[in-house]
Design brief:
By secondary structure, the chain is an alpha/beta fold. Helix content is 37%, strand content 19%. The protein has helices spanning 15-30, 65-74, 80-89, 99-105, 122-129; strands spanning 5-10, 34-39, 93-98, 118-120, 133-138. Pfam families: DsrE.
């Protein structure tokens, strides 16, 4: 039986959205699914070296940020770079950044994190990488 594909499209660069998306991707990979992830929109900017380490939250949560960060550290859930590396090593996982988003946010092969497999257009992602996806989840 061949592995099923689960595709993820991540557009929101807020920490919490990235945390949940990467957690679900990790679960999918550990369950022996092929995982294909496309970063679009603001989320693409998080793939520039050094940007995943920033804990960006919506401004509506400014008052709770310090408590939120403390709880993340308590539960060892504050390092998205480490989580992305774990996701990548969990199985058949490919990570892409959208060509348009890369252009808008200045993501290049030289400045992006090494876990990213390639910069590709959204049509290529949907018609090639995610064409057999059982599920497409968006965050």
């Amino acid at each position: 039986m061949s592995a099923e594909t689960v595709a993820f499209i991540i557009k929101d660069g807020h920490f919490e959205s990235l945390l949940y998306a990467l957690n679900f991707a990790s679960i999918s990979a550990v369950a022996n699914n092929k995982v294909r992830i496309l970063f679009v929109g603001w989320a693409a900017s998080k793939l520039i070296k050094g940007n995943l380490e920033k804990i960006d939250l919506p401004s509506s949560l400014d008052e709770q940020k310090s408590e939120f960060v403390a709880q993340l550290k308590k539960h060892q859930s504050h390092d998205l770079k480490e989580l992305l590396s774990l996701v990548k090593s969990a199985g058949d996982v490919k990570i892409f950044v959208c060509t348009l988003a890369a252009s808008i946010w200045g993501v290049t092969r030289e400045n992006m994190i090494p876990e990213v497999d390639d910069i590709i257009g959204s049509p290529n992602f949907l018609l090639e990488q995610a064409k057999d996806a059982r599920q497409v989840l968006t965050f």
